[in-house]
Design goal:
Rossmann fold; binds S-adenosylmethionine; S-adenosyl-L-methionine
């Protein structure tokens, strides 16, 4: 599926509290400096246009959310989206999420990791570029707190099956737990934009959830 152009953003809006670059995140890692409070932190890798971040932040105000997105214009668009709505418990970060996990996210610091509809890299010789790889999964296990969750959804059956096999092989995560499909109550009542598009096309979505014990 291709992507539509992004709506224009208001260049005068102050994004300084909602849009970061991986290199400008506080070092050492300090979510309190970003969010101004202590709260369970959830990270989404590959946030696209940011629907998950917006809905999750508004629906669970007692948690903090960080979305990392490698495409600059999407990351900035998300920052704008969050700033425009005055959301204080979510930020967008521009950069390589795999590198951020490897180099910056501390052990046992996360309540959840979310990966929704990652780029499928269809050709077998490109599968090594898939984000659900062994090294990232090791980082997920390392950075989740006990009881923390990994959420992985996709519309690509082959990616789903191979990622679940890899999770079983290389991690102690418990799952997959069943994630039932929910009826959408309004036009943006989907986990992400890609879930919305996939379901509006009448195609299946494969959902999984794992827990670190
Ligand atoms: C197919 S889109 C899905 C977007 C969104 N999760 C959704 O479901 O609507 C995958 C997104 O992952 C981003 N991405 C790919 N590799 C990444 C990485 N290493 N770090 C951060 N974002 C990444 C891409 O730029 C793209 O926006």
């Amino acid at each position: 599926m291709g992507r539509r152009a992004l709506p224009k953003i208001d260049q005068t809006l102050d994004l300084s509290r909602h849009f970061y670059k991986v290199e400008t995140l506080p070092a050492p890692w300090d979510p309190v400096a970003i969010f101004g409070r202590e709260a369970p932190l959830e990270i989404e890798l590959g946030s696209g246009k940011g629907l998950f971040l917006q809905n999750a932040a508004m629906g669970t105000p007692e948690r903090n959310f960080l979305g990392v997105e490698v495409a600059y214009k999407y990351a900035k668009f998300i920052g704008h989206r969050l700033a425009k709505r005055g959301i204080t418990n979510a930020i967008a970060v521009h950069g390589d999420g795999l590198k951020m996990f490897r180099e910056q996210v501390p052990d046992a610091s996360l309540a959840a990791v979310h990966v929704y509809f990652p780029d499928p890299w269809w050709k077998a010789r490109h599968h090594k570029r898939r984000v659900m790889n062994e090294s990232f999964l090791e980082d997920v296990v390392r950075t989740l707190q006990p009881g923390g969750k990994l959420h992985f959804w996709t519309d690509v059956k082959d990616y789903f099956d191979s990622a679940l096999e890899l999770i079983a092989q290389v991690t102690p995560l418990v799952g997959p737990l069943a994630v039932p499909e929910r009826e959408a109550e309004h036009d943006l009542d989907f986990r992400t934009h890609f879930e919305r598009r996939t379901r509006l096309h009448g195609e299946p979505v494969y959902r999984s959830e794992f827990v670190k014990q």
